[in-house]
Amino acid sequence: MNEILARARRAIPGGAFTTYVLDEEVDFVVKTGKGSKVYSTDGTEYIDCVNGSSPMLIGHAHPEVVEALKSAVECPSNFYLLNEKGIELAETLVESIPCAEQIKYGVTGSDATFLYAMRLARAFTGRSKILKFEGGFLGGNDYALMSMSPASPFPNFPAARPDSAGIPKVLEDEVLIAPYNDLEAVDQILAGACNEVAAIIVEAQQRCIDPKPDFLEGLRSICDANGILLIFDEVVTGFRLAWGGAQERYGVTPDLAAYGKVIGGGMPLSAVAGREEILRLANPRSPADPRKCFTGSTACGNPIAAAAGIATLKVLSRPGTYERLNEIGDRFRTGASEIFQRHGVAGQAIGSGPLSQIVLTDIPVTDYRSSVSGDLRMQRKLTTGLVSRGVLTHGTFYFSLALSNDDIDRVLDALDNAMTSIF
Ligand SMILES: Cc1ncc(COP(=O)(O)O)c(C=O)c1O
Predict the structure, then answer these.
(1) CA 79 to mean position of chain CA atoms
(2) Ligand 1: which of 53, 111, 137 to mutate, judged by most atoms within 8 Å of the beta carbon?
């Protein structure tokens, strides 16, 4: 282990800022990033398919974002009051997000899902339970970590199993878990509890698992029929699957949507978007409304993050962006399928648009349980094999607009080589 990794291990548990850790033999510290690449402190180049866990959708240090940041840092960085950049970005979000009549800023995606969307839904409906889907990652908050990645033997639906210690036991009764893509199961779960459920929260495309054709429309109808709010977690899908996010891509409009990642251009910024009659509950000026919710934190609407977000969205708004992002994802998926076939290995690259994931199974992946039905140990080995060949991934691929066809072909070559050495 080199000195800087050793320093990290001494100061930080496991030498890890988040839960994402590279295997020991390929672990490294990032020195810098440019376009589609990141570079380690020892000078090794990696094609970046993690992209900061996905906010860097236009690649690292894009010149227009760097320019916007340079101008922004010449001013003070926090006011705790309205600022022009924050208002400009809010206007763009309201114009662009189908469900947005208004937005309210947070700092992290977890703020947007937990502190804002779920709280607003509870206040608006006067109910307390939340239905989420097994395997859905909605941030690190206590609700979202219910059945995020449960291990077999799986609990029976709708029982929730926390994925972290330290979560109050009482919350297990507050979260109902359903299998993704299964409307019948949602109906059955709600049959006994629909008057208690404030919201169904879903990643419309659950990471790399596509929704079945009628799934999202079905959720919309179930919510409408039962006075339940539909929340889309668009922290990953927003401005990525389409300019209008999963809402545009799949043609279903939720009541509320949580945004993060891309809208801050790599800086900390998130937002909840939705109908005015719901967002009104986040209005600090409203007189003693018993449904009024606390929303806000010190860095909300931070002008530097807003400047990076505005510059990023400007790049994404140009003609051809989403065609190119789809083309990148498709090139990878087609190439990966061909490699799996050639090696005679049951494997697939699932996903759509610039989101992809390798799963070592040939059964159709439609929900969490099918997504973990493959050989997870070999999947981890394959991921490490890719990193050792200069492709940074955690098994999921968050492709950026900065990738050239040559970059994707290099990723596929690395996959081919890693398969040869592992299988
Ligand atoms: C779909 C989704 N929602 C919420 C979050 C939480 O965002 P943050 O890490 O900014 O708290 C994430 C983070 O990866 C996410 O993928």
Answers:
(1) 28
(2) 137
